[in-house]
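#lab-general

N.A. 3:47 PM
ok so I finally got the sequence cleaned up, no stray characters, all 123 residues accounted for. can someone with queue access submit it? mine expired

B.Y. 3:52 PM
send it over

N.A. 3:53 PM
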Amino acid sequence: VCYDLRKVFAAKGLHKDVEIAENYLNIAPDSFLYSQEFQQFRVFRENKMNLLQKKPVDTAAVVRNNPYYYDAYRIAGDYSLQQGWNEAAIKYYRQALSKEIATKDERRSIEEKIKEAQKKPKK
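B.Y. 4:20 PM
back already:
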Protein backbone atom coordinates (compact mmCIF):
# COMPACT_ATOMS: atom_id res chain seq x y z
CA VAL A 1 0.00 0.00 0.00
CA CYS A 2 1.38 3.38 -0.98
CA TYR A 3 0.97 6.48 1.19
CA ASP A 4 1.94 10.06 0.49
CA LEU A 5 3.75 10.95 3.73
CA ARG A 6 3.07 14.65 3.14
CA LYS A 7 -0.65 13.88 3.38
CA VAL A 8 -0.13 11.67 6.42
CA PHE A 9 1.78 14.34 8.34
CA ALA A 10 -0.50 17.14 7.14
CA ALA A 11 -3.49 15.29 8.64
CA LYS A 12 -1.98 15.84 12.11
CA GLY A 13 -3.37 12.68 13.69
CA LEU A 14 -6.33 11.90 11.42
CA HIS A 15 -9.20 13.24 13.49
CA LYS A 16 -11.71 11.82 11.02
CA ASP A 17 -11.84 8.73 8.83
CA VAL A 18 -10.30 9.64 5.47
CA GLU A 19 -8.55 7.66 2.77
CA ILE A 20 -4.86 8.56 2.65
CA ALA A 21 -3.56 5.69 0.53
CA GLU A 22 -2.54 6.39 -3.05
CA ASN A 23 -4.28 3.32 -4.49
CA TYR A 24 -3.10 3.90 -8.06
CA LEU A 25 0.50 3.50 -6.80
CA ASN A 26 -0.07 0.26 -4.83
CA ILE A 27 2.08 -2.71 -5.75
CA ALA A 28 0.17 -5.88 -6.61
CA PRO A 29 0.80 -8.92 -4.40
CA ASP A 30 3.53 -11.23 -5.64
CA SER A 31 1.99 -13.97 -7.79
CA PHE A 32 4.22 -16.46 -5.93
CA LEU A 33 1.72 -16.25 -3.05
CA TYR A 34 -0.76 -18.12 -5.25
CA SER A 35 1.68 -20.72 -6.57
CA GLN A 36 1.66 -24.43 -5.84
CA GLU A 37 5.17 -24.14 -4.42
CA PHE A 38 4.10 -21.59 -1.83
CA GLN A 39 1.07 -23.67 -0.87
CA GLN A 40 3.37 -26.67 -0.38
CA PHE A 41 5.66 -24.55 1.79
CA ARG A 42 2.68 -23.50 3.93
CA VAL A 43 1.74 -27.15 4.52
CA PHE A 44 5.36 -27.90 5.42
CA ARG A 45 5.56 -24.96 7.83
CA GLU A 46 2.25 -25.86 9.46
CA ASN A 47 3.43 -29.41 10.08
CA LYS A 48 6.77 -28.18 11.43
CA MET A 49 4.95 -25.88 13.86
CA ASN A 50 2.63 -28.73 14.84
CA LEU A 51 5.65 -30.87 15.72
CA LEU A 52 7.06 -28.12 17.93
CA GLN A 53 3.70 -27.69 19.65
CA LYS A 54 3.18 -31.44 20.13
CA LYS A 55 0.18 -31.45 17.78
CA PRO A 56 -0.55 -34.08 15.11
CA VAL A 57 1.72 -33.98 12.07
CA ASP A 58 0.68 -35.23 8.64
CA THR A 59 3.91 -37.10 7.91
CA ALA A 60 2.84 -38.02 4.38
CA ALA A 61 2.04 -34.39 3.52
CA VAL A 62 5.24 -32.96 4.97
CA VAL A 63 7.33 -35.40 2.92
CA ARG A 64 5.17 -35.16 -0.21
CA ASN A 65 5.43 -31.36 -0.21
CA ASN A 66 9.24 -31.31 0.23
CA PRO A 67 10.59 -34.62 -1.07
CA TYR A 68 14.12 -33.30 -1.64
CA TYR A 69 14.51 -31.53 1.71
CA TYR A 70 16.08 -33.52 4.53
CA ASP A 71 14.19 -31.60 7.19
CA ALA A 72 10.85 -32.89 5.87
CA TYR A 73 12.03 -36.43 6.64
CA ARG A 74 13.47 -35.34 9.98
CA ILE A 75 10.12 -33.83 10.97
CA ALA A 76 8.27 -36.97 9.90
CA GLY A 77 10.83 -39.06 11.80
CA ASP A 78 10.56 -36.96 14.94
CA TYR A 79 6.78 -37.21 14.95
CA SER A 80 6.92 -40.94 14.30
CA LEU A 81 9.39 -41.36 17.16
CA GLN A 82 7.12 -39.36 19.48
CA GLN A 83 4.27 -41.69 18.57
CA GLY A 84 6.36 -44.80 19.19
CA TRP A 85 6.40 -45.74 15.53
CA ASN A 86 10.08 -46.65 15.67
CA GLU A 87 10.37 -48.44 12.34
CA ALA A 88 8.71 -45.56 10.50
CA ALA A 89 10.95 -43.08 12.33
CA ILE A 90 14.09 -44.99 11.32
CA LYS A 91 12.89 -45.10 7.71
CA TYR A 92 12.29 -41.34 7.66
CA TYR A 93 15.62 -40.60 9.32
CA ARG A 94 17.48 -42.74 6.80
CA GLN A 95 15.75 -40.88 4.00
CA ALA A 96 16.85 -37.61 5.63
CA LEU A 97 20.44 -38.83 5.67
CA SER A 98 20.23 -39.51 1.93
CA LYS A 99 19.59 -35.80 1.29
CA GLU A 100 21.94 -32.85 1.53
CA ILE A 101 21.98 -31.79 5.19
CA ALA A 102 22.79 -28.24 6.23
CA THR A 103 25.33 -28.97 8.98
CA LYS A 104 27.37 -31.81 10.42
CA ASP A 105 25.64 -31.31 13.76
CA GLU A 106 22.24 -31.87 12.16
CA ARG A 107 23.52 -35.03 10.48
CA ARG A 108 24.87 -36.31 13.82
CA SER A 109 21.57 -35.48 15.50
CA ILE A 110 19.65 -37.56 12.96
CA GLU A 111 22.12 -40.43 13.36
CA GLU A 112 21.59 -40.29 17.13
CA LYS A 113 17.84 -40.36 16.65
CA ILE A 114 18.18 -43.56 14.61
CA LYS A 115 20.07 -45.14 17.51
CA GLU A 116 17.42 -43.90 19.93
CA ALA A 117 14.63 -45.37 17.80
CA GLN A 118 16.45 -48.71 17.59
CA LYS A 119 16.69 -48.88 21.41
CA LYS A 120 13.14 -47.75 22.24
CA PRO A 121 10.49 -50.37 22.87
CA LYS A 122 7.72 -50.37 20.27
CA LYS A 123 4.27 -49.07 21.18
